[in-house]
């Protein structure tokens, strides 16, 4: 496709599963670029001569870079053609992963992680807004769901695969393969994605105006609590699996988690536009129930499997739910609004991994992953209450 799209889509415009599937592949490699260290944490720590907390920092610093640079860079590049911008971001992802694959310096690896985080900070809000400009408003939720399904598939399928590659052939091979996959996706994007002109920013849709909106603030609070609840534990999932002594180890845990995630994404694509608030409340309850099972039945294989399944159900639509919610609060330059939400999302990952690390180091008397699980349970409970009471903000389309 080479045509340029600059106007609103017509109400009868068809939904192209191929186009949105290709966009989904971008978020697929985006989430893998962020989380690959989590699956090969022991291998990286041993080879680089650092402790596991330092490897966890590689996830956290990626998220911090995303949070810090998302709003200013999305705002500064709002007028750039969306297809061109996406190509530049994919180039950054490729360089970040390929350099890490061959680097021996921890400092250089951190620098590349920061580069990847910067690209992710722009990509997440940009690609969601890009997709909504290709379909009518009543399909925005579906568009975002399919695009962000790459996030779920990356965690449920991509991360176990990358973990297997990293464990079997060395952790560097996982980054090398990921970098090459990004290059292939970049070629496909160039050939098939439609060109969409950028937009101008106004006082009404500036970041400052957006954060003053009460409905936006509610979505940001829900994002903050939900992300800490999920990622605080997910960053140290290998330690959780070890504590539960789950037969099959991290592979089985990620498989069950992934099955739950895929199921919830499928349901989300079908119902999110009409039932956003019930979907969010249900996902939060499922996440809280999962953490409760991990705490109450740490020696039960059946309960552990049920916990990972429920956690997957809760995690699957995480990105979709809140990007859809924030997108409904503004009509123009949705990239800016979603960049604010994305910044909070990534900052929350950093906060979650940081607090998780403190708890693992004995903060507040905890010296194992159970303290992180308790933190997650508390955040899920608070977020459930907020979501249940937010009838106006989380309205249907």
From TrEMBL:
UniProt GO MF annotations: transmembrane transporter activity
SUPFAM superfamilies (alphabetical): MFS general substrate transporter
Transmembrane parts of this sequence: 15-35, 55-76, 88-108, 114-131, 143-162, 174-193, 214-237, 249-267, 279-297, 303-322, 343-360, 372-390
A Pfam family hit: MFS_1
Cellular location(s): Cell membrane
Keyword Membrane in record: yes
GO cellular component annotations of the record: plasma membrane
Record's keyword terms, sorted: Cell membrane, Membrane, Transmembrane, Transmembrane helix
Main localization (coarse): membrane
Domain of life (superkingdom): Bacteria
Record domain Major facilitator superfamily (MFS) profile: where: 19-395
Classification via PROSITE patterns: MFS
Topology in the lipid bilayer: Multi-pass membrane protein
Name of the protein this chain belongs to: Major facilitator superfamily protein
Organism of origin: Oceaniovalibus guishaninsula JLT2003
């Amino acid at each position: 496709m080479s045509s340029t799209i600059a106007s609103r889509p017509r109400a009868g415009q068809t939904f192209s599963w191929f186009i949105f599937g290709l966009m989904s592949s971008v978020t697929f490699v985006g989430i893998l670029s962020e989380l690959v260290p989590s699956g090969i944490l022991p291998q990286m720590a041993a080879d680089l001569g650092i402790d596991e907390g330092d490897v966890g920092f590689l996830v956290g610093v990626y998220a911090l870079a995303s949070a810090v640079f998302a709003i200013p860079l999305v705002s500064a590049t709002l007028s750039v053609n969306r297809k061109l911008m996406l190509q530049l971001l994919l180039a950054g992802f490729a360089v970040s992963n390929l350099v890490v694959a061959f680097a021996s310096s921890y400092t250089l690896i951190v620098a590349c992680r920061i580069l990847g985080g910067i690209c992710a900070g722009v990509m997440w809000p940009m690609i969601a807004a890009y997709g909504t400009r290709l379909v009518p408003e009543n399909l925005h939720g579906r568009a975002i769901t399919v695009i962000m399904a790459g996030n779920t598939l990356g965690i449920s399928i991509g991360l176990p695969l990358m973990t297997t590659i990293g464990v079997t052939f060395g952790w560097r091979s996982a980054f090398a393969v990921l970098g090459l996959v990004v290059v292939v996706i970049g070629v496909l994007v160039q050939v098939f994605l439609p060109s969409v002109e950028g937009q101008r920013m106004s006082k009404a849709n500036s970041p400052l105006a957006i954060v003053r909106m009460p409905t936006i603030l509610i979505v940001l609070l829900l994002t903050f609590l939900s992300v800490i609840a999920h990622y605080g534990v997910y960053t140290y999932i290998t330690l959780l699996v070890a504590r539960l002594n789950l037969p099959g180890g991290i592979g089985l845990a990620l498989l069950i988690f992934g099955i739950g995630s895929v199921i919830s994404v499928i349901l989300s694509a079908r119902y999110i536009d009409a039932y956003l608030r019930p979907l969010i409340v249900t996902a939060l309850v499922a996440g809280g129930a999962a953490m409760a099972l991990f705490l109450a039945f740490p020696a039960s294989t059946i309960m552990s499997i049920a916990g990972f399944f429920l956690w997957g159900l809760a995690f699957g639509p995480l990105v979709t739910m809140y990007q859809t919610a924030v997108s409904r609060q503004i009509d123009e330059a949705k990239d800016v609004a979603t960049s604010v939400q994305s910044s909070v999302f990534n900052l929350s990952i950093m906060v979650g991994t940081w607090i998780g690390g403190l708890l693992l180091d004995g903060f507040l008397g905890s010296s194992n992953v159970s303290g992180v699980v308790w933190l997650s349970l508390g955040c899920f409970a608070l977020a459930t209450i907020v979501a249940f009471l937010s009838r106006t903000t989380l309205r249907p389309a």
